[in-house]
Write a structure and sequence with these properties.
- This protein has 1 helix and 3 strands.
- Strands 1-3-2 form a 3-stranded mixed beta sheet, with no helix packed on it.
- Helices cover 22% and strands 38% of the residues.
- It has 60 residues and is of the alpha+beta class.
- The protein has one domain (2-55).
- The longest helix has 13 residues, at 43-55.
Length: 60
């Protein structure tokens, strides 16, 4: 499965830099399942900025 893990404020962001995390899991005789998560490499920085702006009374 492929999942896009981004916030609403990421929409049309010029600083969006995609990074992927691929996790595979499987058991003997059952095949392998692969999960891919796509997120922005700046996600933590933007989350902190968003929290700060909310504290300061900004509209995010």
């Amino acid at each position: 499965m492929i999942r896009l893990q981004v916030e609403d404020y990421c929409q049309n962001c010029e600083e969006f830099k995609p990074e992927t995390q691929v996790m595979s899991r499987g058991y003997v005789g059952t095949g392998c399942k692969v999960d891919t998560i796509i997120r922005c490499s700046n996600a933590q920085k933007c989350e902190k900025l968003c929290e700060y702006l909310k504290k300061e009374g900004g509209n995010v």
